[in-house]
Amino acid sequence: MIKEKLTRLYANTSKHSNYQLLPACLEPYVSTDEISVNSRFELERLNYVLSNIDVTGKSIVDIGGNTGFFGFELLEHGAKSVLHIEGNSEHAEFVDTAAKELNKPITVINRYLTFTDSSELPAKSDVILAFNVLHHLGDDFGDKNLSMQAAKDLMKSAIAYFHDKTDLLVFQLGFCWKGDRNMLLFPGGTKAELIDFVKDAISNTFEIQCIGVADIVDGSTVYQHLNDKNIARRDDLGEFRNRPIFILKSIKQ
Predict the structure, then answer these.
(1) How many other C-beta atoms can be found within 10 angstroms of the C-beta atom of residue 207?
(2) How many CB atoms lie within 10 A of CB 60?
(3) Which residues span the domain enclosing 216?
(4) What's the number of domains the chain is made of?
(5) Is residue 138 part of a domain?
(6) Average pLDDT per block of 10 residues along the chain, 253 residues long
(7) What is the CA radius of gyration of the chain?
(8) What is the CATH number of the domain that holds 153?
(9) Residue 224: inside a domain, yes or no?
(10) How far apart are CA 21 and CA 76, in angstroms?
(11) DSSP string across 104-135
(12) Which region, left, alpha or beta, applies to residue 246 given φ > 0 means left and ψ of -120 to 50 means alpha?
């Protein structure tokens, strides 16, 4: 019964369905021949995070955590606990059901955040993940009547919002507003524009610990530290792999 339920919940069709690999610990609990997975380079991104953050004993918040790949995997690498926040009800139920079945310290909240109300998150966590969430402002969450410029201003505020809620913020931001390729947040669609946007947003709140950029090494995707060469946009990698991974450290006030 549990395998049937988890398979059904994972396979549920929505805009953000099947975006993540199954965490290794859940592979025996889902009928993999009945699901379709469109990976977004989860293992490669996880490897970059783990190579730059020791998660041992750390409390993790995963915002927009989808079907829980990062939360479950970080627990396997020593994290103490995970707060999984996900607006899609089937994805949230999938993670909650799996966590209870495997007795994992994952607390699930099924809601979209506003990034304005301080009570939406715990007083403090060690690491917050916000992978590819904020460019959906005005779509999945927030005022749908916002102009693009107003949405960009609120995205900056949302990044700064995390300052007193975590020691480390790990996030990615897409180039297309609401995921629409016809609405570019940055006119040139370049990493440099996106990085400058984030630098402006974190003034006096975070400092950049490192920025990961996707590249191809021996035929495989690998995230490496930003450098003068890989900052250039590579159209052959597609839009997603041009999104840098930011690891930001909170500046103590």
Answers:
(1) 10
(2) 27
(3) 41-250
(4) 1
(5) yes
(6) 87 65 91 81 97 98 96 98 95 95 97 90 93 93 93 96 96 94 94 98 96 96 97 95 98 76
(7) 18
(8) 3.40.50.150
(9) yes
(10) 15
(11) --EEEE-S---SS-GGGS-S-EEEEEEET-GG
(12) beta
Classify 178 in phi/psi space as left (phi over 0), alpha (psi -120 to 50) or beta. left
Provide the pLDDT for residue 16.
52
Instruction: Tell whether 5 is covered by a domain.
Output: no
Give me the pLDDT at residue 103, please.
97
3-state secondary structure at position 84: strand
Whether 244 and 197 have beta carbons less than 8 Å apart is answered as no
Supply 41's token pair. Answer: 């380079």
Q: Pinpoint the alpha helices (H) of the chain.
A: 2-11, 42-52, 69-76, 89-102, 148-161, 191-201, 238-241
Task: Find all residues with CB under 8 Å of 231, minimum gap 6, and list them.
Answer: 191, 192, 195, 213
Q: pLDDT at position 118, please?
A: 84
Structure tokens at 120: 């939406």
The residues pairing with 184 across neighbouring beta strands, listed in sequence order, are 176
Contacts of 82 (CB under 8 A, 6+ apart): 59, 60, 61, 62, 71, 72, 74, 75, 104, 105, 106, 107
Residue 3 lies in a domain: no
Q: Decide if 222 contacts 216 (C-beta within 8 A).
A: yes
Match 């990034």 to its residue by tokens: 115
| DSSP per-residue codes, 156-182 | HHHHHHTGGGEEEEEEE--SBGGG-TT
How many Cα atoms sit within 13 Å of 6 on the Cβ side? Answer: 23
Q: How far apart are CA 111 and CA 146, in angstroms?
A: 21
